[in-house]
Fold these 4 entries.
Entry 1:
Amino acid sequence: MSRAHVKMVFRGGFVASLIVLAGCSQPEAAAPPKVFEVGVITVKTSSVPVFSNLPGRTNAYLVSQVRARVDGIVLRREFTEGANVKAGQRLYKIDPAPYVAALNSAKATLARAQASLVAENAQVQRYKVLVEGNAISRQNYDNALAAQGQAVADVAAGKAMVERAEINLSYTDVVSPISGRIGLSEVTPGAYVQATGATLMTTVQQLDPMYVDLTQSSADGLKLRTDIQEGRLQTQGNDAAKVTLTLENGRQYEQVGKLQFSDVSVNQGTGSVTVRAVFPNPNGTLLPGMFVRARLEEGTNNGAMLIPQVGVTHDQSGRPIALIVGSDDKVFQAVLTTSGTRGTDWIVTSGLKPGDRVIVQGTDKTRPGAKVKTVPAQLNGSTADGTPQGGDTRTSPSA
């Protein structure tokens, strides 16, 4: 083989090698993005009871301060401190001797006035016959009539004195004005009490039923009234609103109360109004002054949207957010406003609309802008359409 022929073969092999290398360096076609499968629920509106959690304190239904109504020495106490007493039950006995004497004196005065009236009536009858026969002057007859009228007035005054003396004597029996639980005795036998100073002797409180005075901010009260007026909340009125209590030890109070009224004035110092509820207290569990937390049923929100909690996260600002699948099967993010929870679901008031598909399973596999394949989610406690199978409603601040 000649040298020229060898050069041609070498050049041909080198060119072929370059073509092969060039072919190997061309990029491969990009693989299509993987479409992940996510579980979604379809948003729809539901009727959800609306509650407010309010702090409050218990107060006795009736409070009676037993005070002295006459002056005198306390002879004895006739009750056990802390016991239950009945209305009209005698609690103390004040020395009645001065008032018995006053009553006897009043009765004597009345008897004297009544005797005088009898004499004056007889005098008038005699003078009437005499004046008709012109045996006495008309002046004498008029004087007899005046004396008769004075005797009538004396009898009336005597009766009033007797009645007053009897009342004062009855006040020596200090009785309970109401039925309830009696507190500490402020006086002991031998103590001197005065009507003019209204000496406090003891206090009786009716504890069944009990008042619970709750504190609600004026802003929350205004929002409640606005929601009712604009139709977002339905209510049957304050008289039908139910209230439940959580006691200081965290236990639920077994009795259910009713809202009685809401104060019409705002405390300028705290910006709050007082809401009063009344509760049965047959077992005496509630005592005056206890701190409680109440859940007040304010109405019904017929446009609430329930979203499982697993489908709601929070952004860096703390706002609740959810991933929504649009009509093009692409994911976008929505900022929500919530008003509490019901069971395992958030109660969403804005940020969604009925028919939206919310991702509740597979949220870690996707991000806004990605395309996904949707299937109905299967969650414990709720169905694929977001309807709860059970649970309770609790309020929480709107995000």
Entry 2:
Amino acid sequence: MTNAARYAEGATVRVRIEPTDDRVKPEQADSERLFTVTVTDDGGTVVEPGLGTGRGLARLAAAVTAAGGTFRAGPVAQGRREGWRVRASLPAAPVLPLRGWALWRGTAALDYALVALAIALSLGASLMTAKAPFGGLLPALVTVLLSGLHAVPLAWRSRAPGRALTAVLSALLLWWACDRAAGPGRR
């Protein structure tokens, strides 16, 4: 696409991505299948003479070959004009089976660690600021519940950031209302 933009201004550019029946190792039936990406233009004018290093196609060919694919590029007749075609056949990425405990890997694990940290910090701050820890079982349960309501939406921050923010702010308002309802002598 970069070459078409640089060297074929005004040309019609077609991009096709299609699976093939070819395999990376034709002798193995379970070998990865290939897909082909073809970019063809019908000729045009060079945007700026001397633009580019002249090594773009060689680098692209090296990258495709390193990925286990094949690469071809060259001129092609397109009606009365001569255009250019670049074709790369690449192995399709295999679909990996999901492993157990997927929630405890990557960003999901980070989200849940953030939830645990937020709950711990909320409870720790409550313990440090209270004269008597919680003042009984009911206030302790309310504090734990509000800490959880405030922290659990952090696990949704990647998938539904708007809903997570709404839930956190709602829990914060509920916390404030409970604090006000407790009265000045209990704070």
Entry 3:
Amino acid sequence: MLNLVLKEKGLSRGRVGAELGFISARLFWTLRETFPQFEFEEASRAIEALRVIKSPEEVEVMRISGRMAVAELETELAGICVGEREYEIAERGRATATRLAAEYITAQEGSSMHIEHPLNDGHQIITSNERLDMVHALASTRALTDGDVLTLDFCRIPQLYGYRIGFSRNAALRELSAREQEMYDIVNYAYDAALAVLKPGLPAEGPDLVARGILEKEGMVDSFVHRTGRGVGLEAVEGPEIAAGDTTILQPGMVVTVEPSVYYQGFAVHVEDTYLITHDGYECLTDCPREIRIIPTR
């Protein structure tokens, strides 16, 4: 493939930039031996800068990916029950993602399109009960019990053509206590406040400073152990960081997450969505109710 690209560009020698931190030593030496007329250099920063602004084609893929993530969530929620294991929930969502990706690719490119698999490898983040304070922990063999609260997070799962979407919701196999509902409402208030300042021309740290200030005022900031958001695309974490200290100016074409959260053993609030920065504001790519889903025990 690289040979065809170089030929198409009319390049016969010179310097080629590569993300050397993402390829194996074996692949690096294979490239050098296959293309001795080229010099391969580290270009991670240049490539990361190019990824910050998505092309119209990438935006459309990420719109579809966002709808896929929401469909995966609904599939998982529909089958959750006492006794089911976290990884079994994840496998059910993955089956839906694979089917949707295969249907789209077939419709666009025909059944003769040869691909190894319609959905890239990936493992979903699912935590429940005593595992809820394990931020970004992958789905385990833990079986659900009556009264559990769950976090269902899809940011590690590559969607259509390998693009990633930040998306997470909470569910519970019981009604929330008054204090839990209060915490849920506070985090969603912080989310709304962050969203209110999300727009082109704003420094990327702006939504984080607003959301973090609310959680600090409510005495919950110590349980908020990550940033309010980050860029997403082909990688799960891209620029800009929606975090204090990142003064990158938000621009149309950037795709970022909004996800103020709190984590405790036995209870967590992690509501996350992905937004496209537009010329006059933003577009949500993961349109889905943010209320916690209460699942009747079976």
Entry 4:
Amino acid sequence: MTPPRPAGRRAVAFVFVTVLINAMGIGIILPVMPDLIRELTDLPLGAAALWGGYLSFVYALMQFVFGPALGNLADRFGRRPVLLVSLFTMAVDYVIMGLAPSLWLLFAGRVLAGIAGATHSTANAFIADISAPDRRAQNFGLIGAGFGVGFIAGPLIGGLAGELGTRAPFFVAAALALVNFAWGALVLPETLAPENRRRFDWRRANPLGAARQIARMPMVAWFFVALFLYDLAHFAYPAVWSFYTKEAFAWTNAEIGLSLAIVGVSFAVAQGWLIRIVVPRLGEARTAFWGFVVSIAGLVLFGIVTEDWMLYAIIPFTGLGALITPAMTALMSRRVHPDAQGELQGALSAVLGVTLIISPVLMTQIFGHFTSAAAPVYLPGAPFLGAAVLMALALVPFSIGVRRMAG
């Protein structure tokens, strides 16, 4: 087994910026999507929102279906070509969506974006290649911080560009992706040694094949179940936050945007800075455990608060839950051979994709029921209480995985 290859600071900086720009690209187009859908369909806002949900569904479905294949391609051909092709494809995709004359071409763009969305998983495989085992959680946290910063900056840039027209943010996103591609072509090294590559196998390069492969590694499999339940719970935030705050506290769009920016800052601080202090002291397993505990407490509090100022007090506290993903990813990465790091990250991408499909539907249904006249009790925060239950259930497979790891 070849040890992790060293990579220059420019290469690490490139991966950080790649994830940041990927997150920005998603966020840049959010402010104008409702207006663009209405422009293409002449539908009222409510009906346009339904099509927006279908666009999100298609994107998540493609991530689920193609994530394992792209991870396996990265294990066969290396991280550099997959990452660069993905970036170039995303640039083309943003141009397609920016020029789309019909809703169906917009759907085609989201399909292409979902298929090419290997940036995050391949970036994580790159980090696994170059990081010593005891530094992986911190470096995975750096990648998470890049996503958090991009989540903050993207909507802000998109809102400004949207003043120039509904198509302008797409071309800004395309330009960022194209510049990132050119930079990567110059500075990004290949980190997967030839002896650590393996042939591409379609039986492993699909969601079911990836699941079978992971099932052969019991400790990793239990952590996958825990992350699946964690993601189901965690995506309650983007699924119902705006509906919840409008319903319970009559928040304006500006207040919702500010609160989401605080969420992004909290996550970026936790994953980019705090994890470098916590993991060396507690270790990855205990860091993840306390992340679960904090997340459960935060979700319960969101479900029962009665004053909106309380939300601002709770948000930074719940940001500590962002330590869970990098800590658990590092735990799993330690137990996977270098020739399967891309496959691991592709499988994680598939898990993320399927939870992005399920969680919004589940959480919005709970919200709709408990704010309707038929509800046994009026409770806008019910989705967060349900998410707290899912988060608590995630501790069961997590604890089993930790015990097997210790044994």
